[in-house]
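note to self — DONT lose this again. spent like an hour looking for the file last time. sequence + predicted structure for the chain T wanted, 108 res
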Amino acid sequence: MSGDEYFTGSTDYPAMDYAMTEAGTNNVSASNGDFDVNAYIVMYLGSKTLPYETLIPITVIYILIFLTGVFGNVTTMVVILTNSYMHSATNYYLFNLAVADMTTLVVG
């Protein structure tokens, strides 16, 4: 059975209306195409925002990871650049890893 066989059937399905009536319940019925996208997303994925009790600790942890990473990578690069006896193939590789890690911290 090839993958193309799955796509040969008809796709003419009636429009489904997922309307929330109470918290945690939903009515599913074929309708004239009225579809509340926001209610559907909230029902299955949750709210778009986090409460402050969750948001603040997560933000503090991300800031600590960022600052620790920047400090460690900058220290590694400065030590390798300033000491001439650290100029070896292995340390150049470590310097390159520190630059790549720094880029990942800053960009992403």
